[in-house]
């Protein structure tokens, strides 16, 4: 893993060297800052530490392990992250299914030293406060969409905004923060919506201007279409529909159907920000073609205004293109 003779076969030295490089890169990107303390510190292959992800949330680091070597060197990894200034807690989250494929069965493993890490914490991103749950999805917060959320705040003034699959309300909160006159977030997860509603209070937002509903995304969109509702800006950020290449064709149909409804809910001349976090879809290069098919289904014309991926604290190694998983496309809808 290391061509530098000074750290050959010395895992402690290797971890320190590459973690220090990751810290320096984030510092150059302005992370953390007075208005953002939630970010990705280590992004697996992108930081030359394959199978290791570290997300920082204030004084807490969440370590996501998906490689046997990370588990084998868990004390060294924890010690390396613990010594970082400002980190007071560590939450270790092994990817059990992936590790099992590597021959590392975690099912019978018990914590030797039970974690004293809190289950909830509060963070700030671009000046917006979030309550996050460390027993929630992924590492607890989707820092990869940070720059895309901020972009939404810059185009929402005076607009009516719909955030579908809103999780804890990231895009919705940014829209409200940016001056949207009416914001609706929709998700099926009650724990996520509880966080979203808590986030309204945390940010002193007018609950008359922003609300969150618990409903299946497709059912909500069908109902809204039957009521002839429409929005100036629609955000569609569904969960991973294509976890593997072999289900890509089936997932393409689901993406097409969901985006077709989202396009019909977008006012003519309005904007749809649509996302795919499925690596298989992003790497296939098919997403734009799927969106064109969705537009034909919806009887709409679309033009691409912006294409983006994960935030800049999610570096990608070009020799590992599988690291590019997030597609975020802004469309004008006519």
Automatic annotation (TrEMBL):
Residues 119-283 form the S-adenosylmethionine-dependent methyltransferase domain. SUPFAM superfamilies: S-adenosyl-L-methionine-dependent methyltransferases. InterPro entries: SAM-dep_methyl-trfase, SAM-dependent_MTases_sf. The keyword Metal-binding does not apply. One of its GO terms (molecular function) is methyltransferase activity. Gene3D superfamilies: RNA methyltransferase domain (HRMD) like, Vaccinia Virus protein VP39. GO terms for biological process: methylation. Keywords: Methyltransferase, S-adenosyl-L-methionine, Transferase. PANTHER family: RIBOSOMAL RNA LARGE SUBUNIT METHYLTRANSFERASE, S-ADENOSYLMETHIONINE-DEPENDENT METHYLTRANSFERASE DOMAIN-CONTAINING PROTEIN. This is S-adenosylmethionine-dependent methyltransferase domain-containing protein. It comes from Populus davidiana.
């Amino acid at each position: 893993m290391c061509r530098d003779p000074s750290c050959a076969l010395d895992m402690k030295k290797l971890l320190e060297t590459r973690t220090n490089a990751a810290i320096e890169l984030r510092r150059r990107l302005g992370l953390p800052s007075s208005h953002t303390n939630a970010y990705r510190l280590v992004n697996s292959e992108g930081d030359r530490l394959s199978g290791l992800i570290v997300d920082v949330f204030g004084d807490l680091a969440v370590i996501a392990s998906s490689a046997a070597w990370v588990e084998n060197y868990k004390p060294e990894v924890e010690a390396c992250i613990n010594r970082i200034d400002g980190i007071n807690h560590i939450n270790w989250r092994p990817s059990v299914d992936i590790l099992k494929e590597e021959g590392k069965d975690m099912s019978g493993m018990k914590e030797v030293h039970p974690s004293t890490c809190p289950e909830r914490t509060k963070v700030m991103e671009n000046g917006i406060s979030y309550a996050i749950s460390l027993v929630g999805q992924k590492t607890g917060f989707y820092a990869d969409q940070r720059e895309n959320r901020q972009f939404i705040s810059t185009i929402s003034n005076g607009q009516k905004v719909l955030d579908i699959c809103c999780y804890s309300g990231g895009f919705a909160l940014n829209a409200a923060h940016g001056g949207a006159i009416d914001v609706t977030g929709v998700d099926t997860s009650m724990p996520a919506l509880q966080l979203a509603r808590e986030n309204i209070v945390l940010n002193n937002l007018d609950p008359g201007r922003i609300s969150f509903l618990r409903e299946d995304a497709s059912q909500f969109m069908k109902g809204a279409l039957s009521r002839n509702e429409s929005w100036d800006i629609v955000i569609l950020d569904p969960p991973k529909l294509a976890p593997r290449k072999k289900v890509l064709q089936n997932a393409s149909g689901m993406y097409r159907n969901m985006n077709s409804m989202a396009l019909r809910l977008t006012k003519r001349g309005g904007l749809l920000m649509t996302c795919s976090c499925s690596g298989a879809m992003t790497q296939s290069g098919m997403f734009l073609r799927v969106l064109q098919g969705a537009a034909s289904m919806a009887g709409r014309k679309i033009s691409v205004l912006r294409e983006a991926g994960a935030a800049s604290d999610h570096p990608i190694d070009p020799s590992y293109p599988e690291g590019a998983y997030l597609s975020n496309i802004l469309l004008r809808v006519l």
